[in-house]
Amino acid sequence: MHELSIASxxxxxxxxxxxxxxxxxxxxxxxxxxxxxxxxxxFCFGMVARDSVCEGxxxxxxxVPAVLRCAACTxxxxxxxxxxxxxxxxxGDVAAVRGEELEVESIEIEANQxxxxxxxxT
Amino acid sequence: xxxxxxKVLEDVLDANGTxxxxxxxxxxxxxxxVVNLMGSPGAGKTTVLEQVVGSLPGVxxxxxxxxxxxxxxxxxxxxxxxxxxxINTDPSFGGECHLDANMVRSAVPMLPxxxxxxxxxxxxxxxxxxxxxxxxxxxxxxxxSVTEGEDKPLKYPLMFRACELVLxxxxxxxxxxxxxxxxxxxxxxxxxxxxxHIELSAKSGEGxxxxxxxxxxxxxxxxxxx
Lengths: 122, 226
Known about the structure:
heterodimer; A: 33% strand; B: alpha/beta; Rossmann fold; 7-stranded parallel sheet
């Protein structure tokens, strides 16, 4: 259940960027190679968002496909499931180009005009 | 009131990463190599440690025990006259399922860093969560056992990918099980091609020499040779 820790970190990140305004949407990019369960993350987010600027906010998760690159033959491919061997040369020295993301991409805040001006300045 | 879009583009675990780097800097300053020992509950993490921590030639070792509750594992290590520090992730029912950088940070002042060369952090028994949280370690070791099923690497690829060494424990039980060791190794290579593994029995001692040598090598050079 590390989704609880991750949800807390998401709320903390959103709070830092919200400037005290209520947050209506939090967009998070989750790579396929991360072991994060979306349903569990959404459930935990709803819990830890209570009594914060994220209370009632919608969590939008974008799942980023896993793209690997072979060091030997430079082939790049999208991985649906293991094995991680290169489908072209069967090499094992592969690195993830995409799919390890776990980031808050953006938030939507409900701000009035003066607050907008503050956010624009910061 | 109207809606405003704010770009964030920030790693969710950035705060954990920052604290992990601070831990790492403290360990490096004291010349201590740190190994994060992970694995499921019952894989034998404490037992594989018991086999070697008292007999590492030329290496002074300390242990940080992470558990949800209790000091059972720490007591076993302390009985070997090895300095051990305990962190509990929750003092009541049901604590965190992993150690994070901040928990290790809170234990740093209690660690005898000036008197050790190698610190082994035994993580909370879990096959998912610890892999997501760096704590400032130099290397990660994953303990699995032949009583767990050959498909574990496929079910928990992140954990099996996030380590430099896999210990396959309890091989003394192989004659009594329907466990296909070759199948496990095939699955292991499929999720982490080329990863080093050591087959051992922490009970009989078979194979523990290679595990001991690996720890001495890491403690001496401060990192893992590819």
